[in-house]
């Protein structure tokens, strides 16, 4: 009996130490980050799925700027070519590339929608108006999902950096996760420069 107790005691002590040093908190906050990231990806995918329909409707406007459409198609292609795996949020460099690509798509779509203001027939097209409304709704959902992700990452990162849970983080290999930065926000929210030329 004493032998069993002497073997179980170190294991029990280790479990108590881990739970007291944030191990369980890491499990909870890591899952929250993963769930929030999945929702961000879901909304980005929703936007990417809308783009081909929007481009097709705009193409029907015979004299619409081809260059603008090409920029949107290329930006979508670049954004969807980056494999958005769950591991992406553990690699700051890959995360930054993903965000830049999504920012470029946001900018290209903003330019497209601004330029459509010069095309009364397009603005009167019901299919275009429906797609525009869906796109605006999706952009709002992206903002909400990104904010939830930012909060989840903040909670996780505080646990990684705080004592004594930072000791558990070092032992278990938990690292700070990247979040959306002010630079990302500035690039995404910056109004596009549009040169309408002479028409």
Describe the 3D structure:
Helix 2 packs antiparallel against helix 6 and helix 3 runs antiparallel to helix 4 (92-115). The protein starts with a helix and ends in a 10-residue tail after the last helix. The chain has helices spanning 2-20, 23-59, 66-81, 92-115, 120-124, 126-161, 165-172, 182-189. The chain has 199 residues and is an all-alpha fold. It has a domain at 43-141 and 181-189: LemA-like domain (de novo design (two linked rop proteins)). The chain is elongated.
Topology:
Elements: H1 2-20, H2 23-59, H3 66-81, H4 92-115, H5 120-124, H6 126-161, H7 165-172, H8 182-189
Using brief descriptors, characterize the structure shown.
single chain, 199 residues, de novo design (two linked rop proteins), 8 helices, 77% helix, elongated
Poorly predicted runs of 5 or more residues:
186-199
Instruction: Count the E strands.
Output: 0
CATH superfamily of the domain at 43-141 and 181-189: LemA-like domain
The count of helical stretches stands at 8
Nearest-angstrom radius of gyration?
A: 24 Å
Percent range of helical residues: over 70%
The CATH topology label of the domain at 43-141 and 181-189 is de novo design (two linked rop proteins)
Report the mean per-residue pLDDT as an integer: 83
Report the portion of residues in β strands: under 5%
The CATH top-level class label of the domain at 43-141 and 181-189 = Mainly Alpha
